[in-house]
Inverse folding.
């Protein structure tokens, strides 16, 4: 009788513990959701007046002749641009989290996408006197079918991180064909740097929402901790995978694989002619 009673009590306390865990999980999920809704709303609210600030500052820049005034205005524009980029990251991340995002599947010239990211980041690499290059092998199909804008966004995030966290040496973007089938081709994109590196215990964590390696890093290097979580989701939602090899003090090697559609000779020619 006593044993039955003890078992019953044990069972009851187990049930209570389980309920407590469920309650806590629900609370966590609700607070996570509230945080996201808050972020989306606040980002939207800030973006509208920011558009005004940026728009008028750019207008004014064109008409100003005084060099000092122009410089001050350029600082305003730079800060506003940065703020807009952060807001867009937050909105993008929320959209990705809620699955409210569509990918296009259209022919595009792969080397143009890569080159445009290279060009965009070239000045930042030049300021730090880094060797900066990209390499596309001969066997890579020229025209592929997929979402070129999203691919550009992924490459831009990884490349700007690579430059941001590298003080000397080089940043290299390289592409490899992983598998070429009749209708598809899987490409590996690699962004490799000789920067500060990431400790092994953070290799998974850096892909989390708002994660930055250390407070020290986040103070020295501006950022939101959103870039890599956006990269991971953008790649995974397209059926791909992201990897990271990194050694502290030596450098980081971020790479991801994406599968694209192949196009016919005719579509290829048409795409190249259109550009
Ligand atoms: P952010 O760069 O805005 O802080 P990310 O999500 O892009 O956010 O990166 C998260 C963190 O991962 C960074 O704060 C940094 O600590 C680390 N990290 C990302 N890329 C690199 C890199 N190439 N080298 C060293 N650390 C990196």
């Amino acid at each position: 009788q006593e044993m039955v009673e003890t078992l019953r009590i044990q069972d009851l306390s187990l049930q209570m513990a389980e309920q407590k865990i469920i309650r806590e999980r629900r609370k966590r999920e609700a607070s996570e959701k509230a945080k996201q809704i808050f972020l989306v709303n606040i980002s939207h609210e800030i973006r509208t007046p920011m558009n005004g600030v940026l728009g008028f500052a750019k207008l004014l820049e064109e008409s100003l002749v005084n060099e000092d005034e122009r410089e001050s205005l350029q600082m305003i524009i730079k800060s506003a641009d940065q703020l807009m980029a952060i807001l867009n990251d937050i909105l993008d991340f929320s959209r990705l989290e809620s699955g409210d995002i569509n990918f296009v599947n259209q022919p595009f010239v792969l080397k143009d996408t890569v080159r445009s990211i290279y060009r965009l980041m070239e000045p930042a690499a030049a300021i730090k006197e880094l060797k900066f290059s990209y390499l596309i092998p001969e066997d890579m199909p020229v025209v592929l079918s997929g979402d070129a804008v999203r691919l550009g966004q992924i490459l831009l995030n990884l490349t700007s991180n690579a430059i941001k966290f590298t003080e000397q040496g080089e940043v290299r973007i390289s592409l490899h064909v992983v598998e070429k089938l009749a209708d598809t081709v899987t490409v590996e994109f690699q962004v490799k740097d000789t920067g500060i590196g990431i400790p092994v215990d953070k290799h998974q964590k850096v892909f989390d929402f708002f994660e930055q390696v250390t407070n020290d890093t986040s103070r020295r290097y501006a950022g939101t901790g959103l870039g890599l979580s956006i990269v991971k989701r953008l790649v995974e939602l397209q059926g791909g995978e992201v990897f990271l090899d990194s050694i502290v003090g030596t450098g980081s090697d971020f790479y991801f694989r994406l599968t694209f559609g192949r196009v016919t000779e005719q579509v290829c020619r048409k795409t190249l002619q259109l550009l």
In short: DSSP finds seven helices and seven strands in the chain.
